[in-house]
Task: structure prediction
Amino acid sequence: MATSSPRQLYYDGQVRAASSGKTFQTVNPATATPIADIQSRIPFMVPNPPPIARARILQKAALILRQRNDEIARVETLDCGKAFTETSTVDVVTGADVLEYYANFIGGGGLNGETTQLREDAWVYTKKAPLGVCAGIGAWNYPIQIALWKSAACLAAGNTMVYKPSEYTPLHAQTLAEIYTEAGLPAGVFNVVHGAGDVGAYLTSHPAVAKVSFTGQVATGQKVAGAASGNMKYVTMELGGKSPLIICPDADLENAVDGAMMANFYSTGQVCTNGTRVFVPRSMKAAFEKRLLEKIPYVRAGPLFDEQTNFGPLSSAVHYEKVISYIRHGIQTDRATLLCGGPEKPDVPQDLQAGFWVKPTIFTDCTDSMRIVKEEIFGPVMSILYYDTVEEAVKRANATELGLAAGVFTKDLNQAHRVIDQLQAGITWINTWGESPAEMAVGGWKKSGLGVENGRRGIEAWVQNKSTLVDMSGAVVTVFAKL
Result:
């Protein structure tokens, strides 16, 4: 039985009941119990204040988000199953950072066009115009952060948004809409609808929608991008990855192990940029595995609001079954060496045992052809692959259809830059993993996405260019003159 009041739609500046009569439930992953009923339907609205007014509104919204950080983080923890130590320090904060970044960007004239003097009596100027109504389709792993990454640039550019959160983690959406309204956003500029894939498909194909921004798995993203671009809509796709982390022979062991653990177990492995293929020099095998096993106890599952907990359950029953099936496949079919973890649930208190908990799992002696190495698992499952030369590791790292993220650990910065330059990925790190500040444009190569989010380039995906040539000569040059 649901423990919170039903979540309705949010459009035209207020909460409204859906006329469809359709509902679904969102579930607490830690205990597998329902949290709330969610209503489903779709609206459209469009106004547009000037850039400086938008900047003030977005700055105020960022301030409100920071003031309500812990309250919002608590809901995120209940809805998606991440430890409060994570949601309270990352999810809301990094979303507010992006909102603030774009508010300052447009407030400082970031959307101004260019002027070019062609000749004494002619010049060209450009203008960046909004696209209109845009659809944002969120994912379940970073609910409010993704909603803010999409809506911040969209609203800063002068568009309106119809936002559909994941049906698995929808509780943040109404809160965000109410914060935008409190900050002064005009009614109808940010709207929330709920539902599953059919609602997303409706948004994607709706003739009033000029752009679709989607975050999710590759197969779904390909369908969304195909449907949207087939109707000449703009698209931004942030999709999945099977990202390589290359540890060079000279890398600091402690840093390499910490980086590999952050790249696999943070957010219970439910991060699209996770470095799940860890390439380790064969000479480092014994030392690397030994230090990993020594540090695995630092991954602490438990009550989500306990300040010692840093590892939560998987997000849903469906996803739990998927991840467990991959772990079993790694043991039984791929026959990789199970270094630690496995399909059994970790030791958690009695009241959590019905939740979607899984152990942090490490496979070693993996090969490139194994299914657990080739396919995105989206769970806390690390695959260690050994190599003899860095050149070999780079070649094997690139042997995938995906190209979201990649990283390298080494004390030789010249080597680091050479390796990064060769890795086929849109988001890369040197001697660290996972940080994506507002200033950093992020997006995938190959099948991992289209376009970027955040940074200066991120807002370009939400505007269209208009170029105007002005002739002041007083005469029109024409070939149709009397001979």
Notes: Confidence is low (pLDDT under 50) at residues 36-40. The chain is about 35% helix and 20% strand. Residues 84-107 form the longest helix (24 residues).
